[in-house]
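Notebook entry, structure prediction.
Reason for the run: the old model in the group folder had no record of what sequence produced it. Starting over properly, with the input documented here first.
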Amino acid sequence: MSENSDVVSVGRVVGLWRYPVKSMGAEAPSEAEISWHGLQGDRRWAFIRNDAARSAFPWFTLRQRSDMSQYVPSFADPNKPDTSKTLVKTPSGEIFYVDDQSLGLDLCADGARVIKQDRGVFDTFPLSLITTQTIARLGDMVGDELDVLRFRPNILVEADEDTPFLEDSWVGHVLTIGDMRMRVDERDGRCVVISIDPVTAERNTEVFRTVTDERQRCLGVYGSIVDPGRIAVDDKVRLESPE
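New structure, fully documented this time:
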């Protein structure tokens, strides 16, 4: 960080999540190491539809199976999430290694195969962030209390300013959180999966419709890493002014 940079506090971290398998359930560590490829262990595994060889979006996700977030991954060695064997507990209580073919068959009758991508299987950028105020305001707009995991962020921030969608104004800036610095690159373009309740797997189409009509289909922000480092719940979030 430049010694002449103006830095202001804009909030604090109130939640951290990583998703060991794309579209499956989340882990909520109290602290996490951020590498050049996001939270260690985040979205390193993903399932591919057997019929998607030529698809621009080959992943088997919540779009195909709305209860996929109820499959719960975990690491055999939590201290080494990027290299640990990964286990998945199914909604019925069975436990498989993530690369067990039986898990792919459990997910999809036609079968789905899993791949590991050390850089992470991200749709756009390796970090996603949203504020509590934004989620609360959208909930008011649709008349429902919305679970944060519907939006699958890595970082949940309680902003100092009680203003929804404040994170949009951070695009183009750098945030310092703990030992890590991230550049806020763009608003987070959303798809229909935000209509799915992560607990019940029920769909509320009004959520995606409202984000599309009122927010240009964007909610929260995406970012990339400027300086890797460790972050933790309760860390201050500081905004650097562009030089």
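Summary: The radius of gyration is 18 Å.
The old model has been moved to the deprecated folder.
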